[in-house]
């Protein structure tokens, strides 16, 4: 095949004793100044289907292989995800090696995006994470009851206090993103990223107006649930494969003619590259013009390797076309 579309290659340094050393590729997130590996580790299962020990093993593997962006929310497992990450940060002394993304707005004790709720939610997240700052704080959805300028005003104060370094949007409409850009032009904090559910199984909600606005604003996108709750990993092919739990129910939604067609396309591309379907699904996202770092969780440490390697996986144009066709 010809015409490969490749992400920027990994840097290679030379060691006189042992030969070349591969340095994990890094990308910049908007104007935050953050430089990270272009795969974010999603922590939505920490404290839910994974206990602290299993989560810590995954975090250890992620950082050991060059991962640096950890994505969570104050509502994940009612805050237990943040608590597990905080315990891991303290026990490994790794705070300065990683960037933390968390979301506020959906925790039952601090719901909504009123200034007081945001401030209390941030303080609670800082306590659970055991840190003095949140690298990237995202609004977890919209709050139509609160003017956006009030919410951003609260963020402005938190940035001034050093508790938040940058702000992002999670699942905001194109109209709200445009409104936010106008407010930023008038001095309020500017959204630095957009996180939204986007993957080969779930394309329609993002592609179209939201993608156009993100592209026009130069807004980097961190696609949430990049593997569609694990379905794109390829282990679920029949109803009998589905576990009887909440995550299994979400995966089962993707079973059907379209889902199996996508898995077959992923299988073919993965076989051609000697990798796994999940890595191909991540590489497809990284080929999208607005995507900077897909967000996905794993259930076992050994799954981290192939996903981080997806950042340097070259997909040919014909393979991207086939994946587009299968997921249309």
What do you see in this structure?
The protein has 328 residues and is an alpha/beta fold. It has one domain: TIM Barrel (Alpha-Beta Barrel). 38% of the residues lie in helices and 16% in strands. The chain contains eleven helices and 14 strands. It has an eight-stranded parallel sheet, covered by helices on one side. A two-stranded antiparallel ribbon has the order 1-14. Strand 10, helix 5 and strand 11 form a beta-alpha-beta unit. The longest helix has 17 residues. The protein starts with a strand and ends with a helix. 45% of the residues are buried. InterPro entries: AKR_Detox_Biosynth, NAD(P)_OxRdtase_dom_sf, NADP_OxRdtase_dom. It comes from Agromyces bracchium. This is Aldo/keto reductase.
Q: Which strand order does the major sheet show?
A: 12-11-10-9-8-7-6-13
Average of pLDDT: 91
Compute the gyration radius: what is it? 19 Å
Which superfamily, in CATH terms, is the homologous superfamily?
NADP-dependent oxidoreductase domain
> How many domain units?
1
Class from helix and strand fractions: alpha/beta
Q: How many helix segments?
A: 11
What would CATH call the class?
Alpha Beta
The tally of strands reads 14
CATH topology: TIM Barrel
The second-level CATH architecture is Alpha-Beta Barrel
Poorly predicted spans: 1-23
What percentage of residues falls in helices of 4 or more residues? 25-40%
Distance between the termini: 22 Å
Largest sheet: 8 strands, parallel
**What spatial form do the alpha-carbon principal axes imply?**
globular
Domain NADP-dependent oxidoreductase: 38-326
Region (Disordered): 1-22
Protein name: Aldo/keto reductase
InterPro entries: AKR_Detox_Biosynth (IPR050523), NAD(P)_OxRdtase_dom_sf (IPR036812), NADP_OxRdtase_dom (IPR023210)
């Amino acid at each position: 095949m010809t015409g490969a579309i490749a992400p920027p290659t990994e840097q290679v340094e030379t060691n006189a004793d042992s030969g070349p050393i591969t340095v994990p590729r890094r990308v910049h997130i908007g104007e935050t100044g953050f430089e990270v590996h272009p795969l974010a580790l999603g922590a939505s299962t920490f404290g839910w289907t994974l206990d602290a020990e299993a989560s810590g093993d995954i975090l250890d593997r992620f950082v050991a292989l060059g991962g640096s962006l950890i994505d969570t929310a104050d509502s994940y497992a009612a805050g237990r995800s943040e608590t597990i990450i905080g315990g891991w940060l303290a026990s490994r002394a790794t705070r300065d090696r990683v960037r933390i993304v968390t979301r506020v707005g959906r925790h039952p004790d601090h719901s909504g995006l009123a200034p007081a709720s945001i401030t209390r939610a941030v303080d609670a997240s800082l306590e659970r994470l055991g840190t003095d700052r949140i690298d990237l704080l995202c609004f977890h959805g919209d709050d139509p009851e609160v003017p956006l300028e009030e919410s951003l005003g609260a963020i402005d104060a938190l940035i001034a206090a050093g508790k938040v370094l940058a702000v992002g949007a999670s699942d905001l409409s194109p109209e709200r993103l445009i409104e936010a850009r106008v407010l930023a032009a008038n001095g309020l904090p500017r959204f630095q990223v957009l996180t939204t559910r986007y993957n080969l199984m779930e394309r329609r909600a993002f592609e179209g107006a939201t993608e156009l606005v993100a592209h026009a604003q130069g807004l980097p996108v961190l696609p949430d649930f990049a593997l569609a709750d694990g379905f794109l990993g390829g282990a679920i092919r029949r109803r009998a494969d589905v576990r009887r739990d909440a995550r299994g129910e979400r995966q089962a939604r993707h079973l059907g003619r379209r889902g199996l067609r996508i898995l077959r396309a992923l299988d073919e591309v993965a076989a051609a590259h000697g990798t796994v379907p999940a890595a191909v699904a991540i590489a497809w996202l990284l080929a999208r013009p607005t995507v900077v770092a897909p967000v996905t969780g794993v259930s076992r440490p050994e799954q981290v390797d192939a996903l981080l390697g997806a950042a340097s996986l070259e997909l040919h144009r014909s393979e991207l076309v086939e994946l587009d066709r299968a997921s249309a």
